[in-house]
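Look over what follows to help learners.
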Amino acid sequence: MATLLVKNAALLVTMDDADTRIEDGGMLVEDNVIRQVGPSASLPQTADEVIDARDMVVLPGLVNTHHHFCQTLTRNVPAAQDADLFTWLRTLYPIWSGITPEAVYVSAKVAIAELMLSGCTTSSDHTYLWPNGARLDDQIRAAQELGFRFHAARGSMSVGESKGGLPPDRVVEDEEFILRDSRRLIEQYHDARPYAMLRIVLAPCSPFTVSKDLMRESIALARSYGVHSHTHLAETRDEQDYCLEHFGVTPVELAEELAWVGADVWHAHMVHPSRAEVERLGATRTGVAHCPSSNMRLASGIAPLRALQRAGARVGLAVDGSASNDSSHLPAEARQALLPHRLA
């Protein structure tokens, strides 16, 4: 049994329901599980590894609920700096079509390192195009090498421009292959045990890049294995218009029709739900990844964060991809979440 002792912290902040804060605090970790938290004097004084946290503040590891690791390679593209979502995507799709397995691996290492340096120990990632032999396995290898807790989302796009979708045909995949690969990843990597370091998520990209059939099949596959599901939803007015034109319903109504609500689902952005949709999302305990920097950068709008929380939706914070944020700094994102909601 490997043990780790952190002691003598100037302040240990637990962030439990009582907001407990312990001066001269410490904690004992056994086999990657926190077993004891309290004043340093109350803990064992030896362990396999001891960290003297004198003059330091100890916080729980932060959790990032939505990212696009590969976008660390496409920050500051001039043509994408002053653009709404659809224009931004059309600018970057051709660049992303050149992604390679090495690019997926290196960008994941960069993004994860940035997250770790800002106090984040757990993240999901939602990469949704896999050209040139790139695979989710390349990201998983990077996370494992860095010792990072990773909820790896198998993103996908299947509806290209020729079928009425937004992305170029050359970056979409066959739906049968997407489902086969999703099953392979779950069976090969998903760890359902408590405190697992790696879990798989199924994540078709968005209403304007995948078919209703893929959404139905994906959520059914995920639930058959007990894994979670994730997608972008209700991010922009353009998406709302697309759903009304192609499906005759709003993005949230589409999600409800396809059974993409519930405690095992979370949606990125959720900027434009109606008041009634907010209440229904809360009633089903559906999750939301709140991405304030990206929402402002792409002029998407300000999500109804407080209304979602009051309704009972499970809201988490997210940096989103570095091409719409420029960094992977979760405390900075928390500040961004604070400021616009003083106005909204």
